[in-house]
Amino acid sequence: MVQTTKTGVLVMSYGTPTSLENVEAYYTHIRRGHPPTQEQLQELVDRYEAIVGGVFPLRENTDAQVSALQARLDELAPDRYQCFQGLKHAEPYIEDGVEEIKKAGITQAVGIVLAPHYSVMSVGGYIKRAQVKAAELGIKMCFVHSYHLHPKLISALTERVSRLHEELAPHSGDKPVKVLFSAHSLPEKIRELGDPYEQQLLNTSEAIVEAAEIEDWEFTWQSAGRTNEPWLGPDILDTMERVASEGYKAVLSAPIGFVSDHLEVLYDLDIEAKAKAAELGIAFERIEMLNTDPLYMDTLAESVMTVREQLGKE
C-alpha cells in the first residue's frame, strides 16, 4: 500500500436511511439491535413519507456537505486533505470511514462532526468510535470537539435570524417577534456529568442575539427520545403554547443544534410545530438550515485545519 502525506478528514453525522425499505434496519441499529415494534416502525415510516420527496433528500444533504467541504479544503490547501464519510447509524458507518482512510494509504486524520455543540452523549460517542478504530488500524487521529462560537458560523446564523425577524415583524402585533432557539433534547442526566452541551447552545444563542440585536428570545428543546428517563425540556410545542398565552403573535424558530434539513427539522418543526402554530393562531417560520452555506463550509474547513496544525505538533 502506497502511503500519502495527505491528511484524512472523517466527516461524521447521525445518518439516515437511503430508502423507506431501509427504515427498519436503521431504526433497529438506533435501538442497539432491538427491532422496533410494528407501531413504532410505522410511526417513523409515516414521518418520512410526510416529508416531500421521502427519505432520499436527507442523505443527499449530508453527501453534499462532505463534497462541499472537500471543495473548500482543496481551495484553501490544495492536495492536502481527503474527506471520508462516517455515519453513526447507517452505512458507511464511522468504522467504515476509518477503514477507507487506511485503504487510501493515509496515516493521520482529523475527525469532525456535523454538529457544532459537544456532548459526551452525542459528539463524544462519534469520537470514541472513531478513536477505537483508528487505534486498531494505526492511524494517528485527532478531533474537532466543537465549533459553536466560530465567527463564520455565528455570521451565517445571524444573517438568517435577522432576515426572518424582519419578515415576521409585521405579523407580531403589539409584542415583538419571539425567537425560539432550539436543539435536540438529551437525557437530563447530562447535567450531572457537567456536560457542556447546554451551555454551548446558550452561548451560540447569545452570540446571535447580540449580533442581530434581538430583544425577545429564549431557548427551548425539541425531538426528545421516548424513553422512561427524563429529557431536557420544555419542548418547543409546550413553549409555543405558553408564549401564545402570553400574547405573542409571531414565533421565529432557530434550530441552531442542526446544520441541515434533518427529519427533526422537516417534520418536527415544519409539520408538527407549524400545525401547533395554526392551532394557536400565531405566525410561525423557521430559519433556513446551513446545509452547504459557504460560511458553514469555511467554519468546518478552518476548524479542521486548526486541529491539523495541532496534530503536526504532537
Automatic annotation (TrEMBL):
UniProt-listed Enzyme Commission number(s): 4.99.1.9
Assigned keywords, A-Z: Cytoplasm, Heme biosynthesis, Iron, Lyase, Metal-binding, Porphyrin biosynthesis
Chief site of localization: cytoplasm
Residues at which Fe-coproporphyrin III binds: Y14, R31, R47, Y48, Y126
Cell membrane is among the record's keywords: no
Reactions listed under catalytic activity: Fe-coproporphyrin III + 2 H(+) = coproporphyrin III + Fe(2+)
Pathway per the UniProt entry: Porphyrin-containing compound metabolism; protoheme biosynthesis
PROSITE patterns per UniProt: FERROCHELATASE
Signal peptide: none
InterPro entries: Ferrochelatase (IPR001015), Ferrochelatase_AS (IPR019772), Ferrochelatase_C (IPR033644), Ferrochelatase_N (IPR033659)
Subcellular location: Cytoplasm
Chain residues that bind Fe(2+): H184, E264
Alphabetical list of Pfam families matching this protein: Ferrochelatase
Function: Involved in coproporphyrin-dependent heme b biosynthesis. Catalyzes the insertion of ferrous iron into coproporphyrin III to form Fe-coproporphyrin III.
Protein family (similarity comment): Belongs to the ferrochelatase family.
Protein name: Coproporphyrin III ferrochelatase
Source organism of the structure: Paenibacillus septentrionalis
Lineage: Bacteria, Bacillati, Bacillota, Bacilli, Bacillales
